[in-house]
Structure formats: structure tokens, C-alpha cells
Predict the structure.
Amino acid sequence: MRSFTYSQLPGRVVFGVGAVEELPREIERLGAKRALVLSTPEQRAQAEDIARRLGSRAAGIFARAVMHVPIETAREARAEAKRIGADCAVTIGGGSTTGLGKAIALESELPILAIPTTYARSEMTPIFGITEGGTKKTGRDPRVLPKTVIYDPTLTLGLPVGLSVTSGMNAVAHAAEGLYAQDANPIMSLLAEEGIGALARGLPRVVKSPQDLEARSDCLYGAWLCGAVLGVVGMALHHKLCHVLGGTWNLPHAETHTIVLPHAIAYNAPGAPEAMRRIARALEAPSAAHGLYDLERALGAPLALKDIGMPGGELDRAAELACAAPYWNPRPIERAGVRKLLDDAYSGRRPA
Ligand code: NAD
């Protein structure tokens, strides 16, 4: 066995249908008496429900979370937390809301109790992102890792099918790259394979029947495991490509991950045979790249960059940017291979 180093992240997870009922006990466990509940404007009703469940331990609601945590929103939320004397942030929602909680914790060290309602995974990582002057700055800080996470699949029943699919495949991308990361370790690889398998089993049933609680449970469980992988090990070419495409051409995050994933995996296949074997096994498919592409096609996921706003004339530039200051990768980064990968992803053809 290869030598490895593994740092375990702290955190408590309460998982299950109806787990949100545990909220009063969990907030008491944290010793919090004045919680600020955070959500997006769209999820205000859910935030109000959470405040009701918290009873006298709820001190206020801030329902103004938006994508990418603009610094202005972070400042307003921090000021509100101070104004009401909050001693805890309870987030109900996706990565945008969890991200806002992290922005508060980064400054004040307030503990976060996260209640995720998408498959975004931010709740499992010490990674934060704040957007200032049009640029998203990300970093790692143990203070932003939620102390407690309540996963209740019931709360994901309303997640639209399209978002469930792309958000779920985005989670799979973290686990897939986690299997061949430079700092991969056997513990995270177990979680990664299990997480990919759970999402691959759950997503087709969610597409068929979005109210299927067992399928929703599988997906949320899979997303949790994939998030745990993202929180501990580094990422490679796939994430670099998505960063470049999202950052330069403003392509939507989860859709970009979904489209690029089978192609990045096909590129890396020769450099990471054991990871490919495990991805294929989790997907119950003969090959990792084809298994991912076929799963996405069956789910009705977007398959081509040209369909989500990528300008065709910019593929050369995208290849150049992806090859500049590359992340560590299991296969050396070669411009011609990356350009070919981008061409396949642009047109949405099955990877070679
Ligand atoms: P989101 O949080 O922006 O939510 C998208 C929309 O869906 C919002 O309007 C939200 O209110 C709504 N929504 C959420 N749950 C719902 C539900 N169950 N039913 C109906 N509507 C619901 O989207 P997201 O994909 O969860 O998060 C994306 C953000 O998370 C990005 O900014 C991304 O960078 C960040 N992220 C961060 C990390 C990290 O480790 N820091 C990891 C993954 C993603």
C-alpha cells in the first residue's frame, strides 16, 4: 500500500428522513441561545419554519443570501449578526446560503449549524468564497467548517430535477478527482466510491420520481460523502478546466462540471487506472468515462458546452489558459490532448 497522510475534519452529522426534528436538541448541544437563521429570499418560508422550530433560541432571520457571496451581502449579514448578538448561524439552503454563514464565521468565529437542501457539499468543507470587485476569492479556514450538519432528505423534495442532476454530477466530480488526487488516501477513496455509487443509483430514480424519498436519501447521502472528499483532498485537471471556463466565460458552475467531467476523466484514464476501476465499479459500467457520459445522457443532463454559452471560437484560448499554471494531475498536461478534450466537451460527443 502507498504511504499516506490523513487529517480528519471535525464535525457532527445528523442524517435521516425527519432529521430536522432534531434541531432543538442539536442547537442546545452547541450551547447556542441566539441563532441567526440564514437563507436566500426564495427560501424565506423554510427559514421561518426553522426559526419556529428554534423557538426562543432564534434571534433573527437574514433571508438575503445570493450566489457567490458578494462582500456587500457578507458585510450586511455580519452587521446583522452583531446587532442581534447572535451566538450561532443556522443556514438552511444550498451552497450560497452555507457560503454566507461561512463569511460570518470567518470574521466572528460564530459556530455554524448547516441544514443543506441541495447537493452542493459546501457544508462538509473548510473552503470559503467571497466575491469582491467581480472576483471570487477562495480560501481554507477551519473556523468556517460547520460544527453540525443536519441532512434531512425531506427538505430536498422541492429541489428541481434539473438542478438535482447537475448539482449531483458536480458532487460526483469531486469524488472522481478525489480518487486520483495527489494527496489521495484510502479512507477518502472509500467515501468517494460509495458517494459516486449512491448518486448513480439515486439520480435516475429522482429524475423518474422527484418525490421518491428513498432516492432523495441516496442522493443526499452521496452528496455528503463527495463533499467530505472535497474537504480533505486536492483536485486536478477537471477542476482547473471548470475554473477557467466558469471564470473566463461565466458559464454556469454545476452545468460546466457536468459537461466536462466525462472528458476530463477520459483524458486522465491512462494516468490513474485504479481510480478508473473504482469509478467504473461504482457506476456499474465497463469504463469510467463512458459510464459517466452514459449516466448523464440517461439523466437528461446538458452534454455540450456549446449549449450553455461557450463561444466556439475560444477553445484555443481555453486550452491555453487550462495549461498555464496547471494543478497537479495524474497525467501530464499536454496542450493537444486538452484541446481535443475541450472539442469533445464543446460538441457533446461521447469521449473516445
Ligand atoms: P444555491 O445555494 O445558489 O441555490 C440555488 C437556488 O435553489 C436558490 O434560489 C435556492 O434558494 C434554491 N434552493 C435550494 N434548495 C432548494 C430546494 N430544496 N428546493 C427548492 N429550491 C431550492 O445553489 P447550490 O448549487 O447549492 O450552491 C452553489 C454555490 O455553492 C456556488 O457559489 C458554489 O461555488 C458554492 N459551493 C461551495 C463549496 C465550498 O466548499 N465552499 C462547495 C460546493 C459549492
